[in-house]
Amino acid sequence: MNQELTAVMALKAELDKKFAKDLVIMELGSLSPIADYFVIATGGSAPQLAALAQTSEELLKAQGMLLHHTEGLQSGKWVLLDFGVIIVHLFDKESREYYNLERIWGDAKII
Questions:
Q1: Is the whole model's pTM more than 0.90, yes or no?
Q2: Whole-number pLDDT of residue 71
Q3: I need a surface site. Which of 19, 26, 36, 89 has the fewest CB within 10 A?
Q4: To which H or E segment does residue 66 belong?
């Protein structure tokens, strides 16, 4: 198992313990140069999204991943954490339905 997949699976296990809902891991592989993996989850409130983002950042950094960019943390509706090969998308329920990444990236393998 490669380092990135190991990090994604560790993140999945940690977010499963927290209050992440509808957690999905998509393997983009050869579909896009953007990233190899998307981790997508829904939080119930702005504080929950912030906590999920903090957990994601801490865990992936501990796994040797470098955080390149963060967006949306102040909005309380969605957060994007860009670790290069891994991109974490955290949404409130309405934003997740609106952006519908699972449909947009429908050819991606769900892990």
A1: yes
A2: 96
A3: 19
A4: none
d(CA 35, CA 42): 20
Strand duo 86-91 + 37-42: pairing: parallel
Residue 16 CA to chain centroid, in angstroms? Answer: 12
User: Can you tell me the distance from the alpha carbon of 86 to that of 20, in angstroms, rounded to the nearest whole number?
Assistant: 17
CA angle 11, 55, 106 (to 5 degrees): 45
Q: At what angle do helices 46-62 and 3-17 cross, to 10 degrees?
A: 150
Q: Please state, in angstroms and rounded to a whole number, the distance separating the CA atoms of residues 31 and 57.
A: 25
3-state secondary structure of 40: strand
In angstroms, rounded to a whole number, what is the distance separating the alpha carbons of residues 25 and 47? 22
Per-residue confidence at 69, pLDDT binned at 50, 70, 90? very high
What does the block give as tokens for 64? 């040797």
